[in-house]
Amino acid sequence: MGFALRAGLNVRNYGFFIDLAPYRVPLNVGGIPNTIRDPFASNTPVSTATKGALMPVTDVYFRGLDDSFRISIA
């Protein structure tokens, strides 16, 4: 990532080194529900980077790997 930034390129993190724990935590204690289909539209962050260097470039509306989140293809 450092090389890309030094070269003047844009960097964005979509799902790498994401804290997956909130997907398994009960909703009443701060878990993230798997029913949110469009986190950006509802302004609901659904991911947090676990590496400090990735925090400023992580898309907080891109859901990390969550086996309970069903993707349906229309």
What does this structure look like?
The chain is low in regular secondary structure. The protein contains 1 helix and no strands. It is elongated and about 45 Å long.
Number of strands: 0
Q: How helix-rich are the residues, as a percent range?
A: under 10%
Low-confidence stretches: none
The whole-angstrom Rg is 14 Å
Largest sheet: none
* Coarse shape: elongated
For the termini, the CA-CA separation is 35 Å
Roughly what fraction of the amino acids lie in strands?
A: under 5%
Tell me, rounded to a whole number, the average pLDDT. 86
Instruction: Work out the helix count.
Output: 1
Q: Which structural class is indicated by helix and strand composition?
A: little secondary structure
**What series of H and E elements makes up the topology?**
H
Name the features.
single chain; little secondary structure; 7% helix
Give the topology:
Elements: H1 2-6
Give a short overview:
The chain is largely without helices or strands. Helices cover 7% and strands 0% of the residues.
